[in-house]
Amino acid sequence: MEVQWDSSLQSTTLSDSEIDFNKEAKRIADLDMPQAIVTKLINNVLCGDSIEEEAKLAVIRSTTQFISYLTSSANKIAKNKNHKNIQPDDVFRAIEECEFDEFLPKLKDELNAYVEIKRSAKAKQNEEENVTGGPPSSSIVTDLPSDSGIK
């Protein structure tokens, strides 16, 4: 049985049980990964080879679906642990449950590298504060003495 949509039957008002598919499609498209980021990733992987626009759109939609699925799985794992926030271990467990185990070593290495970069930046900032006796000069001053003349 084939169902066809007759545009002459469109209603301008929808009941609570009806769905406005045009609005729903816009919301789904709003969840897509930014095209510029995906294009940059694709170009890095392809090393100068080109990709058609339809293929790029397929990668964008696939990426969005993958992230949504993985996030949903990680969220279930976090909730089962009575956590309010998803932790990296929840994501790693979700990747295992989704049978993407081959990604885990690289992802864990990347997370460790990111954590180390953040730790080094924090240590450098703390070192600068200790040398100068306060935060870097680019910090915003919120407490001024009342006799400073600045209002």
Radius of gyration, in angstroms, nearest whole number: 25 Å
The DSSP helix count reads 5
| Mean pLDDT over the residues | 77
Let me know the number of strands: 0
Structural class, from helix and strand content?
A: mainly alpha
Order of helices and strands: HHHHH
Give the fraction of residues assigned to helices.
55-70%
Sketch the major β-sheet: none
Q: Compute the separation of the termini in Å.
A: 75 Å
What is the percentage of strand-forming residues? under 5%
Any idea what the shape is? Answer: extended
Taking pLDDT < 50 over at least 5 consecutive residues as the criterion, the unreliable ranges are: 1-12, 141-151
Describe this structure in words.
The protein is mostly helical. The chain contains 5 helices and no strands. The N and C termini lie far apart (75 Å). The model is unreliable at 1-12 and 141-151 (pLDDT under 50).
Give the tags.
single chain; 151 residues; mainly alpha; 59% helix; extended; disordered N terminus; disordered C terminus
Topology:
Layout: H1 21-30, H2 35-46, H3 53-80, H4 88-97, H5 104-132
Helix pairs in contact: 2-3, 3-4
Keywords: Nucleus
GO cellular component, one term: epsilon DNA polymerase complex
Region (Disordered): 122-151
Summarize the structure.
By secondary structure, this protein is mostly helical. Helix content is 59%, strand content 0%.
